[in-house]
Amino acid sequence: MNLRLIHDKKQYGIGILSILFVSLICYILRDSLNYRIVALILLLTVSIIAMVYDILPVLLSAFLSAFIWNYFFIPPIFTIDISNTEDVVMFLSYFFVALLYAVLNFKIRQTEKKAREKEEKEKTIKLYNTLFNSLSHELKTPIATIIGTIDTLKAYNDKLNKEQQFDLLNDIDLASIRLNKQVENILNMSRLESGTLSPKLDWCDIDELINSLIQKIEISNQHKIVYSPSENLPLFKLDVGFTEQIIFNLLYNGIQYTSTKSVIELKIVHEMDNCCIEIEDDGPGISEEDLPFIFDKFFRITNSRSGGSGLGLSIVKGFTEAQNGTVTVENKPTGGLRFKIIIPAKTSYLNKLKNE
Question: Are the beta carbons of 295 and 313 closer than 8 angstroms?
């Protein structure tokens, strides 16, 4: 309520000051300006104010401009009397046009605002329909797998050998990982949209973090992840959770959109005061038309395989920018995508030296 009041006062103040400033300039140049020309200049000023501010500040500016024009410019000056009938008609016309400008501009801006809100609402509904349609598949599939596999284990447990039981349990494990990832993406996107992200910086051994992620991911895929750690890599001070999610989503994206047996390469480099993460694959890449939109929420590449909610890369971008970092993507000349994340981070070698 207080912010609204301050906003209103600011509009009134700027409107009044604008009229007074233009009037002062016109008064200084009154010997060179005909008072009819002054009317056009003031009318233009009211029109500009009407394009920006609410109706009441604009109406006040219109009243003020009419009074100033009458008092300081229409003969006889320094009086509100108008001796000439033609000037009376002109003054009334000015007053009417100024008010009309104020009302019409306000109505136009109201209509434009409603049109924008309607367009944004339709766009939001479309986006969330896309999300819900995608999630209905993404969530239903692993849930159905888990339920069906458990039913099989219950019904035929005595008839299954250990290898068959292991395969069924592995199916449950994969479905659980997929289900957990979708839930995490929804929760992470909710945090990003709420604007409540606050990085918690801590010292991180990035080698240890990546090796742990690779072990977790390679259990459930047939791709090859190649990690080439740099020598003498320091500890980085960054948000461990955000960074882990960034790397995980990029690796998972590479696995999801490349064929089996594909190779995904991961490199970490210490450049200046930055932690630089580079991930590339040998997949088909994407079209140059789609490339600028790859980090947009719910965006799906044209003719891409089914699956995925379109949230993974937008979360990468959000978590990177939350740490004041940047993320870029490009098509490799040899095929595939190359992602590069640069996160500003303090470094330290102390703990590593102690461990050695």
Answer: yes
Q: Which two tokens stand for residue 20?
A: 């007074």
Alpha-carbon span 293 to 75, nearest angstrom: 63
290 close to 302: Cβ distance less than 8 angstroms: yes
Is 302 or 236 the better-scoring residue by pLDDT?
236
Q: Which two tokens stand for residue 189?
A: 């996107």
Alpha carbon distance 72, 28 (integer Å):
11
Average pLDDT over residues 265-279: 91
From 49, 84, 86, select the one nearest 64 (Cα to Cα). 49
Separation CA 168–CA 149 (nearest Å): 6
Spatial distance between the Cα atoms of 30 and 147, rounded to a whole number of angstroms? 87
Residue 146 one-letter amino acid? I
Please report the pLDDT score of residue 184 as a whole number.
73
**On the CB side of 45, how many CA atoms lie within 13 Å of its CA?**
28
pLDDT at 238 over 80: yes
The residue type of 181 is: K
Q: 3-class SS at 54?
A: coil
